[in-house]
Design brief:
Largest sheet of chain B: 7 strands, antiparallel
Distance between the termini of chain A: 49 Å
CATH architecture of chain A: 2-Layer Sandwich
Structural class of chain A: alpha+beta
Oligomer: heterodimer
Strand content of chain A: 5-15%
Number of helices of chain A: 16
Radius of gyration of chain B: 20 Å
Shape of chain A: globular
CATH topology of chain A: Creatine Kinase, Chain A, domain 2
Mean pLDDT of chain A: 94
Helix content of chain B: 40-55%
CATH class of chain A: Alpha Beta
Shape of chain B: globular
Strand content of chain B: 5-15%
Largest sheet of chain A: 7 strands, antiparallel
Distance between the termini of chain B: 47 Å
Largest interface: A-B, 39 and 38 residues
CATH class of chain B: Alpha Beta
């Protein structure tokens, strides 16, 4: 492939919950973390609107193994910083029971404005996502890859579902985070665009008519990043284990590599309308990998697991090329043992105790981290 | 205009809250209402998923005056049935504070399936809407009218906003009902369809693939009704006063007539993608009448009141022809004095008492009803 170095590079952003190991509630602790993080994490750590949320973003990574090192390093540093305050980090799409009303909002004109604009929708938006950036050198091509990649978002989401609880209730859904977020405008699966200019005209019109001040306020499940030449897949719930994050990032990377290759061979995955893709998105949110999704080519319902196996076969060449076989094996483990949501629900059914669910999320979040003994011991408690 | 009698007929469906005048909470009371209503209201009364919700639907009405009579008659009967057990009816997009967790679900295979399927999304769907049906000449044209009418939905919604409170909180939005409902699939503003057959193929595909068992599970803000030859406007919050309901229905009817007329003159309203119309829909839900909406033709933000005046001008000849000038004049009053949401918020700001908001809703819901003296008290 005549690709520049930038092609298919990875960037991974994860949003973490800061929790109190005694109460298991969220703790509004970002100020202290930022204070300590200036030295340790530099510009790779960012506050979010709620002070109990921390975002970590890797550098641009040339390969999945490079990304893995980074994610482990960042998570480990964050865990140490939280440990200093006697706190823990936890990664899942929602906190099982903490209420958004009890969270402090980060100071700053930007967040004030969002709250003024979005009101309760903003204050209640206490959710945690995994965002994966994949480099594509040409924005023209990237729009067409985005159009095609929309098809796979529900499949990828099904694997990542990790938010069955909301404000202390079992919602009956595997991924409730999407339901919280989709109250915002400009969310969900985007329409397909004819061309880069159609997309850019859309952005310009929204800015001109005061809907947004810049295209970063487009929060679709997938987007062409406004500044970087990357496609950003934003649909996934935050993943508890490092292995889960990397497996999903690797799958996203391979799908994008595959679709880019199709374009260069003058073919394209079929582009379906949002109203059809939304049916699968709903099923993924409701059932995770336990349900059926629609195969629109065959016009039939098919077990999600079977479609995921097909998807992995579809991208197997790219997986080889990108060196992410280990990550694909972990996807098979998720399919065998369950998604984060399935694991949360299993603990809840076994213990009937939401606090035990938090403990499990914390334990999974620390899996594979490299911590000084003191911190590691504390996490294991 | 020469057309069969069915065209431009009106049908109005309203969803009501049954409230306890002491606690002001919702009361799961539909079984008693249905038992009593068999005689009075016959097939015009329907249960909903939550037992504290009652739906009333008019017959097919030839014009807006007939619809008004029917709405008054049915509201009055329902109010009397509720009064027998010391209860009241109230009409608004949400109840200000009652929690969905406390509501009983109507015992019925159909609702059990919905709850099984949709889980918390269904149980939490404790909202109240106004649905208006307008008769269309044929389904081909119906799709065309639906495509064009999408543009007007946020403006209709801005006039109808009536759900600022949810579970006892002031949400900061004028209409929170949309935010609850759009967690369901197949809601919001639909895409435009090329033709009736494209729409029908879409329905068939959803049925084939087990997404829906029938087309009634498409819950868009506007839809071509699966069984009747009507366009159904479903976007509006339930309206407290009879006058509010009727004024909105009159405008919807006039829009359909207008678009039909344009078509016969070979003109069409411009069709915009859903992603643009949704920007206005969000603004309507957030600000009601008090914000700005985008005029996509002029590509600029404009005060919503100004755009509504333009809309009323646009359909003025049709309002004349349909003889609904008096009903539509009420829109001017809404624009002057505020929407249902504005009035709810005013009571709350004055009293700091969310129970007073319920009293206010009940009072508005009973305006113009014909009650015996005992029931009026």
């Amino acid at each position: 492939m005549p690709a520049t170095n930038h092609t298919f590079t990875l960037g991974i952003e994860e949003e973490f919950a800061i929790v109190d190991p005694e109460t298991r509630e969220l703790r509004s602790h970002i100020q202290e973390i930022l204070e300590g993080g200036k030295v340790l994490l530099k510009e790779q750590i960012k506050p979010e609107m709620h002070q109990s949320v921390v975002e970590l973003g890797t550098e641009i990574c040339s390969s999945i193994s490079h990304a893995r090192e980074h994610v482990i390093e960042l998570r480990s540093k964050l865990a140490s910083l939280a440990g200093k305050g006697g706190l823990r980090i936890a990664s899942a799409g929602t906190h099982p029971f903490s209420h958004w009303r009890d969270q402090l909002i980060t100071e700053g004109e930007r967040y004030k404005e969002i709250v003024r604009d979005m009101q309760q929708l903003a204050r209640a938006n206490l959710i945690f996502g995994l965002h994966v950036h994949v480099g594509i050198p040409s924005r023209e091509s990237a729009i067409h890859v985005m159009n095609q990649a929309r098809y796979f978002l529900p499949h990828i989401y099904a694997l990542s579902a990790n938010s069955p609880f909301w404000i202390g209730r079992d919602t009956g859904l595997k991924g409730y985070r999407l339901k919280v977020f989709e109250r915002f405008p400009r969310t969900g699966i985007p329409d397909a665009f004819e061309s880069l200019s159609e997309y850019e005209d859309f952005c310009k019109l929204l800015v001109k008519t005061g809907c947004i001040d810049n295209p970063k306020k487009i929060w679709w499940d997938i987007r062409l990043h406004p500044f970087f030449d990357t496609l950003e897949v934003r649909v996934c719930d935050a993943q508890s284990r490092v292995d889960d994050t990397l497996a999903i990032a690797a799958l996203i990377q391979a799908v994008i590599a595959k679709l880019y290759k199709l374009l260069r061979h003058n073919t394209t995955f079929r582009v379906y309308r949002r109203r059809l893709l939304d049916e699968n998105r709903w099923r993924a949110s409701r059932y995770g990998i336990e349900g059926k999704l629609i195969d629109f080519g065959r016009e039939a319902e098919v077990e999600t697991r079977s479609l995921l196996n097909e998807l992995m076969a579809f991208v197997s060449t790219e997986v080889e090329e990108l060196g992410s076989k280990r990550e694909m094996e972990h996807i098979e483990r998720i399919m065998r043992e369950g998604t984060g949501a399935d694991r949360q629900l299993a603990v809840f059914h076994r213990t009937n105790d939401m606090k035990a669910v938090v403990d499990q999320i914390v334990a999974e979040t620390y899996e594979g981290l490299t911590l000084p003994e003191a911190d590691a011991g504390a996490a294991a408690q | 205009m020469s057309h069969p009698a069915h065209i431009y007929t009106l049908g109005i469906e309203e969803e009501f809250q049954i409230v306890d005048p002491e606690t002001r909470e919702l009361r799961s009371h539909i079984q008693e209402i249905l038992a009593g209503g068999k005689m009075f209201l016959k097939e015009h009364v329907k249960p909903e998923m939550h037992q504290s919700v009652v739906e009333l639907g008019t017959e097919i009405c030839g014009d807006v005056r007939c619809a008004r009579q029917q709405v008054i008659q049915m509201r009055s009967k329902l109010a009397m049935l509720a009064a027998r057990d010391g209860l009241r009816i109230a009409s608004a997009g949400t109840h200000p504070f009652s929690h969905w967790m406390d509501q009983l679900i109507t015992a019925d295979e159909r609702y059990a399936t919905i709850v099984q399927d949709m889980q918390q999304i269904a149980r939490a769907n404790l909202i109240f809407g106004l649905h208006v049906h307008v008769g269309i000449p044929d389904r081909e044209e119906g799709i065309d009218i639906m495509n064009q009418a999408r543009y007007f939905l946020p403006h209709l919604y801005a006039l109808s906003v009536n759900s600022p409170f949810w579970l006892g909180q002031n949400t900061g939005l004028k209409a929170y009902r949309q935010m609850i409902f759009e967690r369901f699939p197949r809601t919001g503003i639909p895409d435009a369809f090329e033709s009736l057959s494209e729409y029908e193929d879409y329905l068939k595909l959803l049925v084939t693939t087990g997404c829906i068992d029938n087309a009634k599970k498409i819950w868009w803000d506007i839809r071509l009704h699966p069984l009747f030859d009507t366009i159904e406007f479903r976007i509006c919050d339930a309206q407290s006063r009879v006058d509010d309901t009727i004024a909105l229905a009159a405008i919807m009817q006039a829009i359909v007539v207008k678009l039909h007329k344009l078509r016969s003159e070979n003109v069409t309203f411009r069709m915009y993608p859903r992603r643009l119309i949704e920007e206005n829909r969000w603004r309507a839900s957030r600000y009601g009448l008090d914000g700005k909406m985008i005029d996509f033709g002029r590509k600029c933000e404009t005060d919503e009141r100004e755009l509504l005046h333009e809309m009323l001008e646009f359909i003025a000849p049709e309002i004349d022809e349909l003889g609904s000038g008096r009903e539509v004049a009420h829109i001017e009053r809404i624009m002057r004095e505020g929407t249902g949401a504005d009035r709810q918020l005013a009571v709350w700001e004055r009293t700091g008492d969310i129970k007073a908001v319920v009293d206010h809703l009940v009072e508005e819901t009973y305006e113009d009803l014909i009650l015996t003296r005992a029931h009026a008290a």
